[in-house]
Amino acid sequence: MSLRDAAVRRRGPGAFAWHLGALLILAVVLYPVVWTIGASFKPSADIIGALDLFPADPITDNYTRLTEGIADIPISTFFLNSAYIAVGSVIGVVLSCSLTAYAFAKVRFAGRNVMFAIMIGTLLLPYHVLIIPQYVLFQKLELINTFTPLLIGKYLATDAFFVFLMVQFMRGLPKELDEAARLDGCGHLRIYWSIVMPLCRPALITSAIFTFINAWNDFMGPLLYLNEPDKYTVSMGLKMFIDQDAVADYGGMIAMSLVALLPVLAFFLAFQRYLIDGMATSGLKG
Amino acid sequence: MTHIQTSPGALAPGDDRAADKRNGPAGAAPPAGPKGPGSRENLAGYLFMSPWIAGFLFLIAGPMVFSLYLSFTEYNLFEAPRWIGLQNFTDMFADPRWRQSVKVTSWYVLIGTPVKLAAALAVAMLLAQKRWGQSFYRAAFYAPSLIGASVSAAIVWRALFSDDALVDRTQKVFGVEVGGWIGDPGVIIYALIALTVWQFGAPMVIFLAGLKQVPRELYEAAEVDGAGRWRRFFHITLPMISPVLFFNVLLETIHSFQIFGSAYIVSNGSCGPADATLVYTCYLYEQGFVNSRMGFASAMGWLLLVAVGLVTAVLFWSQKRWVHYEEGGR
Is ipTM strictly over 0.95? Predict the structure, then answer.
């Protein structure tokens, strides 16, 4: 607060320098993104060598080529697979993590502190200790080349970060609300669904956005578990593109890279406020 | 990471009693079953927790025990695991490519994390001033963090840093002849580090939240005492945001250890010319899933766990020397 007041007072002479500095850094940071947009309208041969950001004669061939698909698979297949996994992940995380968080924040059961400590511990656990045994497990269950290995963890609240985020949020809710509901004879399920969940919307939205974007960008999961091209996600489709012809079709690759980012960018533009605030509070709220 | 440490304590058993007392005399106590309200709460708790409990047992604890066992075996997924004792570990230390992967990953963590955090802090300090368009800048700086982990970003990076491409040509303007970074084993790792530094948005947002909590009066008092910019930074800003700095260092370090996708794609699935971007997880993936050495890869996974555990422990140990928590907390 006080920092803000002071800065307002200092508006004026410093403002120009401030904006100049911020814009300069922004130009460097966003350059790769702008470059990609420009490059997607250049002929493949010009993409690496040409120095101009935007081509003098923009072409749309790179995009029309995408309608032919990659190795006989239509682009839409990759997008539908990714959308299925991303939306499925969001539903799973929001439901399972909020149930778990409710137990930690609102139910007084024996062993709660120990379980909470374990849950926090899993936050620091490197995923790579688990990939071999999990792969063996899913292989024995004959679930390789299905979406189950990519989704099941989301329905079993293994994303400790989101559980933690929701616990912190639920602890901040006024106690009087659920105490009053209990006096009125509401059970935990009722309090969870009718009182806590609606009030937790900011935390749920933050978790949902992060889950969607992580699932959409995920590369290692699909690389391990999906092995037939008609099951591939957008990330894997992009990888196929590279494998297919590394040098010749830079234009198609860049165009596909941009198209692959569209859902992420759209999500970001729509929800960036929630996302950034959620990010900030997760590190700080105590 | 104050919240994590204080949180379990904040689950206050005292509240428990207070609530019970209030419920008791009011006569609105839940209908006591044979075992009383305590066991009902336990049942409710475990029911709500059941997804996590199942997930923890089947996807985390069970697999960890299994991978510990596998790390002492030779296992190719098709024949039964064969116990070989510590051989995976001795093989590992004797393996020059494994040592290379440790070197590459350490370099990536040691250079990438501090540079990324420094960039995040610098931009956060700039944005901590209230200016017109502040939230626009905040969002724009955050954007790369979202797309940075994608295959798309890695592909663009490869295009920007390859021979005769943008970075190469810009260098030539300044008279530096390096050639593309992607094909050069000496510098390709810096292209990867640049990719992680580019994604400074997430720690930046956390720094920003921390900076907003620093009481303005401290700066005013210091200014009256004649402290310059740098003194104020080192004696006020840094100590005051040290809990947030600690949180960022911890998360970013753990995160960097696990880099995979960008290294894999930037180097075109080969982990680099002359193994120059053979990060630890790349080698783990290659040994486990390309060479079917599941036992060896499990052993690698466990050593990664030990390394991350050690680094975490050292960071937690060191925090009493440099992390200042406010008395009493919030």
Answer: no
